[in-house]
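Worked example 4.2. Below are the chains of a multi-component assembly; read each line carefully before continuing.
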Amino acid sequence: MKVVYRAIWDLPVEELFASGHRACAGCGPAIAMRWITKAAGPNTIVVNATGCMEVTTTQYPETAWMLPYLHVAFENAAAAASGIEAAIRTLSAKGLWRAGKTNVIVIAGDGGTYDIGLQALSGMLERGHHVLYILYDNEAYMNTGIQRSGATPKYAWTTTTPVGKAIRGKVQEKKDIMGIVMAHRVPYAATATIANLLDMTNKIKTALEYTEEGPTFLHILAPCPPGWRYPEELTVEMARLAVETGYFPLYEYDHGKVRLNPPTSQIAADPKRKKPLRDWLKLQGRFAHLTDAEIAELEREVAANLAYLSALAKAFS
Amino acid sequence: MTVALEARAKAKQTLALTSNYAAAYAAKAADVDVIAVYPITPQTTIVEKISEFVDEGELRAQLIHVESEHSAMSAVVGAAAAGARTFTATSSQGLELMHEVLHIASGLRLPIVMAVPARALSAPISIHGDYSDVMNTRDTGWITLIAASAQEVYDSIIQAYRIAESVLLPVMVAYDGFLMSHTTEAVELNDEEEVRKWLPRRLDRPNLLTPEKPITMGAFAMPDYYYEIKYQVQEALLGSLDKVVEADREYGKAFGRSYGIVQSYRLEDADYIVVAYGGASWGNAREAVDEARRRGIKAGALRLRVWRPYPAEEVAKALAGVKAFAVVDRAIAFGAPAGGPVYIDTVTALRMRGIDTPGLSVIHGIGQRSMFVEDFVKVFEMLKDGERNKTVYMGLKL
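Applying the procedure described above to all two chains together yields the following structure tokens:
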């Protein structure tokens, strides 16, 4: 990644995501929006899929967006962004686009990316549009009231994967969305969280720069207090622990090379530095029902995923 | 006027074109910026022709090879929001897949133009023509023209940009799948420079997505605002009829061809009128009028060139005082009080004006079941014999 911001005081001061929106107290995605817009700057068009961020920020006649913003529907943000990018290209060539170089950024949740929007995302990546697609992942359909998505982790409670006598939480594992994106051989894709601020903002800058070449992708973990069932003051801590326990590894796919980023790279090199997964799970009501055996199983899966990514990083270094 | 005459004089090329190719030539003449299309029969030859134009460098546009019709409409929504002149085309299942976004295109007030060679809907799957797909878009807030010749397809698509960009609503130009989309007619093409002069760019729309003036499009409306925003669509759509008339008239002045919003054939002294839409039905209806008149029936025919907004005044004017009328629909309004969707509209238009001319709903040409001139003559005979107030399923094998 290109290091544009070396320290917290390098980060942009200008706010482009207004306060007063209707997101929950402690909303992880809202923190992501604030830093995405700061890093992208005012010459940016945002295309937002239906979801929490759309509903809580655009209640007519108010808006939290100080950038040009378009919401079309749930499954088609990547397609709408393709159209905008194509429009800017043609209008620029014809001398009809007066705003100069303009970023086009999709912002979509996990439902709008892993599930209903996957086809449009794949189409946009395959066609090579100059668009940055940002997935903010809060690991369920939080906007409609906490239903499971392809991003919900195994065993997690949601309202559609309740903890019953026959089935206890979600049966399936979280989908490897980064793997799907990397399979499109895009110039750049990376994971980030709202807790690792410099890492996230530098990745936004890097991804935007690489959109000159083609589509780029960011997967940002953005915890949700009501959905994960933890006290709202712990949002940043939840994201930090997700990384430090190895649950959510930070890494980049940069022109075919895979690189683990700190602290994931240190954890992978020295597993003793990895915090126990239990430390993260026990703070969340959605995992309150887990048995020791189930926690041990998830811990093994975390280790296996880290080993897989380390092997990828080694093979494609 | 001198300019207009010169424009006409500059003409023109006459080519043998299918309606699909005519649609592609019209989009090229309009100098569209972004096209997003997904292949589907019978639309596909439009996107093939446009691909040739773009790849040959004859059309300076971005052609987005989308992965579905849903994305086709979504991409042109995005492009139109950013100020591009856009074009797309589809048929049948593709139009169904777009359906969600059709409402959004009108709600966002985007001047998108789409060609629709009309085709039957699954199941059972049928690639052949009827108007089931178009009729299912009834309440989407789109202006809908239905053309009856390849020339009219060409002219209507150019007019559609004028209409869409002045009313700020999307416009669909529909025509018979296969019977028009794949049959060749002589089409006179306008000088493209003249078309572009006739369609000046409007870069001053209030709903433009640009960093120069950031706005939020596609906002979330609660019960205190939603109704008014949708009412504005209704107001704009109803008011667009004048713009359709005006665009057609201005086009006539500039290029020498215009159509009106309804077309009539031998209505002057008609006792019985068949209302039709689309090329095959209109051709048959006119032939049948002549034949019925030879058999002593005072027959006439009326064609709807505009379906949304429904040209209620013009239709009422034509049907008031005649003995009876029939509407030949190439679609079924399943479970409705009458079988034909345009028949239902027509009866409503008359009743809303206190006119009680009796009518007959005729369903024909479903899944491109052959429609013969004699069938249309039979409709006139049924009207003369007192058949009223029911639905007739013509051409049905039972």
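Take a moment to check your reading of the output against the notes. The CA atoms of residues 39 and 195 of chain A lie 15 Å apart. The two ends of chain A are 14 Å apart (CA to CA).
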